[in-house]
Design brief:
The chain is α+β, with helices and mostly antiparallel strands. It folds into two domains: about 130 residues, Response regulator (Rossmann fold, 3-Layer(aba) Sandwich), CATH 3.40.50; about 110 residues, RNA polymerase II/Efflux pump adaptor protein, barrel-sandwich hybrid domain (OB fold (Dihydrolipoamide Acetyltransferase, E2P)), CATH 2.40.50.100. The chain has nine helices and 17 strands. The strands form four sheets. Strands 12-15-16-10-9-8-17 form a seven-stranded antiparallel sheet. It has a five-stranded parallel sheet with strand order 2-1-3-6-7, sandwiched between helices. The two termini are about 35 Å apart. The model has no long low-confidence stretch (mean pLDDT about 90).
Length: about 270
C-alpha cells in the first residue's frame, strides 16, 4: 500500500513534534503541525487530514475538543491520541468517543509507525465500504462485527461476561483487518495482572510489525487460550469465539464498562 498520508500532528512539546515529523518524513508521509488546540482547530476548518495525531492534554484545551470538532463537522479523519500514563483513562474514554487508537508517551518508532499504518488501513476499509454502499452493490464484508452481547474497547479489543463472574477477552476483527496476516502472538502469563487501556498481548504480523492490544478491562488472568499457542491464526479465523485470548477475573467491571462500547449499538 502507498505510504503517502496527509497527517496533522498536534502537541505543545516541540521535541515531540520534531520527533514525529522526522520519523514520518523518513516513511514519506506528508506532515502538518499545530502547537496548540486553537491553531489545530483553524487548520482542521480549512484542510482535510486523513490522520490526526493529537496529545490528549494541551495548555489551551484537550484532544476531546478535536474529537468534537471532527464529529460536529462530520469529518472522517482517523484520530490517534497520545497520552502519558497518568491520562490512560482519558485515552480509553477517547476510544469510546471515536478515536481509533492511542499511543503512550514516550512511544517508540515502531509504536508510532504501527499505529499510523493501522490508521491508513482503517481509512481504506471505510472508503471501500462507503463506495460499496453508494454504488448500490452487495456490500462486501471487510470485517465481522462483535456479537451483540459483547463490549469493545474502541476497535481494538472485546470483552464478554461469563455466568461465573469471569470475562473472556480477545481482539476485534476490525483491528485484525487493519494489519497484515498474523505470524505470532506474545501472551502474558497465568495470574498476571492486566489494566484497562494497557497492552495485554502483542501480535506480530507477517510484515514484521508489532501491534499492541489494549486490554478492555483490569483484572487477573486465570486462563490463557492454549489453542492459540498451537494455532495462532485461529484468532483470525474465529476472533470472537474459539479465538478468545484470556479468561480474566475483573477488578471493577461495573466501573470500567462505562468506557466500553456495547456491540449491540453497532447494529442500530
Amino acid at each position: 500500500m502507498s505510504k503517502t498520508a496527509n497527517i496533522l500532528v498536534i502537541d505543545d512539546e516541540k521535541v515531540i513534534i520534531d520527533g514525529i515529523v522526522k520519523i514520518c518524513s523518513l516513511e514519506n508521509y506528508s506532515i502538518d503541525v499545530a502547537l496548540n488546540i486553537t491553531t489545530a482547530l483553524e487548520k482542521i476548518s480549512k484542510h482535510y487530514y486523513s490522520i490526526i495525531i493529537c496529545d490528549i492534554m494541551m495548555p489551551d484545551g484537550d484532544g476531546f475538543q478535536i474529537l468534537n470538532e471532527l464529529q460536529t463537522r462530520n469529518i472522517d479523519s482517523a484520530l490517534i491520541m497520545m497520552t502519558g500514563y497518568s491520562t490512560v483513562e482519558n485515552a480509553v474514554n477517547s476510544l469510546y468517543r471515536g478515536a481509533i487508537d492511542f499511543i503512550p508517551k514516550p512511544f517508540t518508532v515502531d509504536e508510532l509507525l504501527s499505529s499510523i499504518y493501522r490508521a491508513n488501513k482503517y481509512q481504506q476499509i471505510k472508503s471501500k465500504q462507503e463506495r460499496s454502499y453508494k454504488d448500490n452493490k452487495e456490500v462486501e464484508l471487510f470485517y465481522v462485527e462483535c456479537p451483540s452481547k459483547y463490549y469493545r474497547l474502541g476497535h481494538s479489543s472485546w470483552l464478554c461476561e461469563e455466568s461465573d463472574g469471569s470475562v473472556l477477552i480477545g481482539v476485534c476483527d476490525f483491528f485484525l483487518a487493519t494489519i497484515d496476516s498474523l505470524m505470532e502472538i506474545e501472551f502474558l502469563e497465568l495470574e498476571d495482572e492486566i489494566a484497562q487501556g494497557i497492552s495485554c498481548f502483542t501480535i506480530k504480523s507477517t510484515d514484521e510489525r508489532i501491534h499492541k492490544i489494549h486490554s478492555p478491562v483490569s483484572g487477573r488472568i486465570i486462563d490463557v487460550n492454549k489453542n492459540l499457542k498451537l494455532i495462532p491464526n485461529l484468532i483470525e479465523k474465529d476472533p470472537y469465539f474459539e479465538g478468545w485470548v484470556y479468561r480474566v477475573i475483573p477488578h471493577d467491571l461495573g466501573y470500567e464498562i462505562k468506557n466500553l462500547v456495547p456491540c449491540s449499538s453497532d447494529r442500530m
